[in-house]
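User: Hi! I'm working on a homework problem where we have to compare a predicted structure to a textbook description. Could you give me the structure for the chain below?
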Amino acid sequence: MNYLSGVELYYCSSEKIKVNNIIISDDDYKHIVKVMRHSEGDEIYVTNGKGEIFLSIIKDIKKDGLTVSIKKVLKYENELANVFFCIPKLKSNDRFEFALEKCTELGITNFIVFDSERAIHKSGKKERWEKIVLSAMKQSLRSYLPNIDIINTVKDILKPDGRKILLEQNSGKKIPELKVNREEKYYFIFGPEGGFTNEELELFGKDDFYSLASNRLRTETAVIKCASLILE
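Assistant: Happy to help. Predicted C-alpha cells:
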C-alpha cells in the first residue's frame, strides 16, 4: 500500500476511538481548529499509532474537543517491528532528540535508552522524548508510534532474546552486509561518546561487531546512518 503524501496527520489514542467515531482533544484539537481552521464537514486523517490511519470527517466541534466519523480505514504493516535501536544518553540533549526524531521519520519504532560507564551525560526526560517521536511520526505521515524503554546498563540489553549488533568502528564487517530477516529480533547497540569500556565490550561476541564507516562518527550520526542503511 502506498503511503500518504500532501496531507496533515493527527493522532488519537485507541481508547478515544469508539466504533466509527474518534474524539480528538488537546494539542491536535487546537491545531485542527485554530491553526488549520478546519470546520465541520472537512476531511482529516487520524492515526492510532498502531498501524491504522483513519480518513475521517469532522462531525462536531466543541470548545474542548471535536468528534470525527470514520469514513475509511487504511492499514499498514510495521516493516521494522523486529528492529530495536539501543542508544546511550548523550551530552547534548538536542543531539539525542535529533537522532530520535530522524530515526522515527525513517521508520524505527523501538528505542531502548541506556546508561554506560563512560556516558558523559545522564539526563533527559522520557515524557519529552515521547512528544518528539509523536511529532515526528505525524510529520512523516507514519502510522506506528515508537516505543521508548529505559534501562540501566549495557548488560540489560543482553536479557531479551534476539541478535545483538554492536556498532564498532574497527570491525571488518559492515552493516550493509547484514541481512535482516523478519523472523528474528535485532538489537543495534550504539556506543556512548566516551566509548565502551573493555568490560562492556567483553559482554559481546566478536560475531556481534559491525562497522558503519571507516572513520569515527558522532553517536547521533551513527544512529541515523544505520537507520538509513537498514531501509535500503
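For your comparison, note the following. The first strand starts at residue 9 and ends at 11. The domain at 83-231 is CATH 3.40.1280.10 (Alpha/beta knot). Good luck with the assignment!
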